[in-house]
Fold:
Amino acid sequence: MTTLSAPKLIPNTDPAIESIREKVLKGQRLTLEDGQVLYRTTDIWSVLELAKIVRDRIHPGVAYYNINRHLNYSNVCALSCKFCEFARKQGEEGEYTRDLDYIKEQGRKAVESGATEFHIVGGLNPYLPFEYYTEMLCELRKVAPNVHLKAFTAVELVHLARIAKVYKRDDTQAGVRWVLQRLKEAGLGSLPGGGAEVFDERVHKEAFKTKIGAHEWLDVHLVAHELGLNTNCTMLYGHVDQIDERLRHMEILRRSQDQALHRLGYEGDPEGYIAEGIQESEQITAPVITLNMDGSKLPTPAMSNRGGYYQTITPLPFFPDGSALEHLPGPAGIENLRTIAVTRLMLDNFPHVKAFWIMQTLPMAQLMLEAGADDIDGTVVWYDITKAVGEGTHQETTELDLKRAIGEAGYQAIERDTLYRRVERDGSSWKVEV
Ligand code: V47
Structure:
């Protein structure tokens, strides 16, 4: 009779993690070298565990979702980014531009379904006038007055400055300020985080050469923050980017958040770690502000009435299908899990890390709640940018599924509005806690 010998246990702990653990426990800012260790270590469980410590410290026992609708108003785009499967040229099969009747209809459906948010983005359509955008927001305001309008990425806003003829190459901020003021008057509530991709000149040249670069993207968000608008940000990873480029992207974003929080009166540590040699972050003069140790130091919902900072970072895994980079594999499960965790650990001054279930899948987004994420986005309904669920663009989940996923992960599911205020709901009618 053969007996099975017990499997030999190979300890998988990496001593290099220990100094990072100490920093995390003390709430200190991690360096880019720490980020490299977190990305390269085989001790993945320690990485996830550390991210969970930070996530639980900031959001003990809870995770967020919302009832929202994504609205892609046009896929006609002047750009040809290699990673994009969404964009079409005018006249090409599958191109569309939604008219105001369609948009109003979407507004009515949002009210019927009790949505609290519209997430509105599209291509850089050279055929639409500036008024299309202000009218879109005004009409939505009329039919859906309580639904928050989170609309237009930094890339679209620079395009809008161009079509409104207020864009100045040497002063992006001036033109964008003009545009954002008009859009705010029309009902704009906040900015989504798209279009950031990876802030790196090599990646920019290789994958999205004609799109705005880091400098302009950051200018747009800075102006939005100055105007009191909250914004989000993203990192589209797993295509031609490398680990060090992702980490530099995170450093630039956390410096940009240092700047936003400093403007809002947060005190920081002038001696805190600032990575050297990163052009965009060198231009930011603000002390290091971490939110790691004291939950009360977070920008609270009450502060959202006085907004002007990044609420959420959403790492977006690259989907190769249908893009000009289709030959690349795209990132898989462990890579996605690790990226969420590293993002939580590096971006110590971001209140929220989102595992966008549409791109991560709901089961993975659920696991990510244990690895640094505290938000899984919402009911979505239609999503045209990538098609992960089934064949089409109808990608909807129910509130029940979102709540079940969060509850099963051991967290209390909190319905939030766009500004992370708790929503009190009775069917399709709702109000936010103030
Ligand atoms: O800007 C485009 C990315 C973004 C692909 O702010 C792709 O709360 C993967 O920004 N594979 C749009 N990604 C989505 C976005 C977003 C999503 C959810 C929440 C929020 C938020 C923002 O999608 C684009 C681009 O970076 N993208 N093509 C692709 N093939």
